[in-house]
């Protein structure tokens, strides 16, 4: 079995974040590390976060830092990763990629305690960088520039300090030290200047600006204290204020810090483990620091990293749940709870604490947020909404930020307006008054017997002086020439000049216009019976009839290609006929209406659209690709057919088709991020757009639409206006990143004594609001749990509940609160006593000797895993009755699945005559985090080190067991290797690089093949698709091999070594690496394609096909 691994949703959690000017100029950007992904974010002036670039580095990012050489205009990024190479990256804004400037190796690869990469420190003027390990090793690199102003890096200088004691005694008695190192640039030597003991609870250092900006030194953040230290300076200590309701035994630790420095002042923001932010300021003069003040600032959810941007924003990369961008309303100058080193009082019990009460946001206001699924605790795939495709139900977050999210493949939609119309419309268009206008002037809606014209201004209102004929339905409305409007209705063409003059062209005899195609300078109409009439706009702006042409039968659809830049007309007209053909006709004066090529299709075409892609070298979408003209056709059988039109001869090549839905797709041209894109409306809407040089087709998370047009006004620059039933809708498409999933949140299980104080997490309208959540920080309850956390209980006390949810209405149908400090660890549906299946009632409790970590129904009885014992229970009147058990498991059992008479428990077992026998187990002991039963002999599993593997029972063993119904043979067989008599074979092995928390087998598209989906702690979703043909396996394994050689990972990790981090990778092809092919330079694409005896186009087609099988 060969599998293709593809990430469907990139990791959304953030491990660390840094900010700076990475593209040069004054623009502030944020670089975030999401485990194995490096992303560049930029907030715009309105405070909306945009992802400019995201790249998988096939390694683990351990640390990030940024530096700027003196006098330079932009910042560089230093990455410490598990490749054990220090890598310096520069963002190239022309090509929208990270360029590797330097890569220096200093050891063997992996994340180990003595390998540098865990910590980074940058010299204050960007002249040196120190990279440190958890223990022993520290290396210093000197940064400089050569004569051509390029960055140079020296060989490493060592600053090691050896601590070795294999007995572990020293570790128990260890004392933390703070050490200052100095780099002498003249001698090119690092020396330890000074070292002194610090509090053993110290967990973070914050640099204090030095030189002309401040007193230099560091802030040491320890449990309950912040201490200022510098060489030759007395310690200045102050206590961290604590919440009044915090139990005494709980300390306060600082989790993240950010520094804001201006010419005249600087301050620090420190956040505690409870989410409270404190502003720290230093009073300093010529004789050093005199006072250290800590003032309560605001409370936001706990962050992994905070970045203060010079533009007045605070980016908070949350530890769990959605990340947020806040704007500063003030910088905390108003009086508030403050603790100072000058008022620190020591009593017999220790230093006197300072108390404060959390309040609503005063200095910050949240203006945007970025979705985060981290961590996905569990995931189930089911079609509870009875839609075309199943939904993914995931439990995300933890504690007060936990949520149940419903994920659907597709792009998020922001709905701007919905309004009722007086009838059911058949079509809608938007039109500008002049070709140079930025915004549309009219929305025109056509009904069965009338046309409604709406003017777009401050408000949208009906007008009657537009010149359009409103007593007839319309077939097309468009801007023609530079400043004239055209209305095509069944009996003729109405041409409205800028000065209000109206020219009419009427149809001959009793024939009516059935189809129309236009592009601003050319118009072609099809009359009933199949006659085509071609018009052009002449120099004076008049519409002139040029040519007539009889087709063999009625025309089903028309489209004219866009006019190329610098030309007067486009050469290509596409005509779809009911005889299942599409013809390309010429519009050149020399061979007007001559057929250039014919394409037969599987069903009559319903809609045609030309999509022009301009040539790009690097640029915004980070890929090189030539100019192309695509012809898209929506066929009556629900298939979208796409082919490339040769821009000179008009010949068709490289055809692809994809089933979109049960309705014939209607195609419309829209703009996304300033580039042409295609909206396909079938039984659900789809968006076709170019991303990094290849065409992507992604569903939109929205209901079915009948007709659409692009829409642009001063409130909404890039929107879509559409009709659905008898409503008119205006919406924008949120982002077009690869493989995005949109989430709807449902109320999650919370601490029930506070009955869910709302999420306040609603970012856009594809996310259903909670039953009792608000859009902004809950106005009625200023202290929402989501923001402030729960009150902290004493240790070993908790609250737990079991909730039954109806996902359609987001209502809780049943809530069982567990009393007396109980917690639910595992749940299984056996036989429920329900009223219409919506609520639970307690029958009885059975006391057992350990925590049952797994439960499963098995042949009308209950299997329970209690520690390392597997036990079978039957239902009694007052308690569960033991039937049989097996105590031969070496470790704690964490999962049970059953199929027929086999039980799969991270190892396989068999039950017979009330006895459980282990007949096969795995050779490698693993720390299992997820497992899934694939078929009778196969299991999939994931371990806590980020590996996914499949094991299969050998066929001869399986047959032998099936032939022995009593299990007599197994009973007396000797175990091998301290385990079962037989071993399972490992057939698939792959290192995902992220802890997998759930596995499930499902098909995500109608008629698609089944694949195994996995969710991870970092909030990513991936799929493993089995290959069906040997040819595909050969093709993709060769493509992967060439990509490994020609395009090694960005941060220096060897791709093969990364995917084999714990066990050699086996029979899995990495689709994430193969999908980087379109981002390669064109000459490299051709080189790889020649090696594979293919063209680059064929490789892209293969990549698209395999992606379409999954999603």
UniProtKB/TrEMBL annotation:
Give residue ranges for domain RSE1/DDB1/CPSF1 second beta-propeller: 413-733
Chief location: nucleus
Q: From the UniProt entry, list the residue stretches annotated as the region Disordered.
A: 764-791
Which Gene Ontology terms describe the biological processes this protein takes part in?
A: mRNA processing; RNA splicing
Which parts of the chain are coiled coil? none
The superkingdom listed in its UniProt entry is Eukaryota
* Family per record: Belongs to the RSE1 family.
Alphabetically, the GO molecular function entries are: nucleic acid binding
Q: Acidic residues bias: where?
A: 773-784
Q: Where is the RSE1/DDB1/CPSF1 first beta-propeller domain?
A: 14-338
Q: Where in the cell is it found?
A: Nucleus
Query: What's the protein called, per UniProt?
Result: Splicing factor 3B subunit 3
Bilayer-crossing residues are: none
Which UniProt key words apply to this protein? mRNA processing, mRNA splicing, Nucleus, Spliceosome
Specify the taxonomic lineage: Eukaryota, Viridiplantae, Streptophyta, Embryophyta, Tracheophyta
Give a GO cellular-component term: spliceosomal complex
Domain RSE1/DDB1/CPSF1 C-terminal stretches: 837-1077
Q: Which organism was this protein described from?
A: Hibiscus syriacus (Rose of Sharon)
* InterPro entries per record: Beta-prop_RSE1/DDB1/CPSF1_1st, Beta-prop_RSE1/DDB1/CPSF1_2nd, RSE1/DDB1/CFT1, RSE1/DDB1/CPSF1_C, WD40/YVTN_repeat-like_dom_sf, WD40_repeat_dom_sf
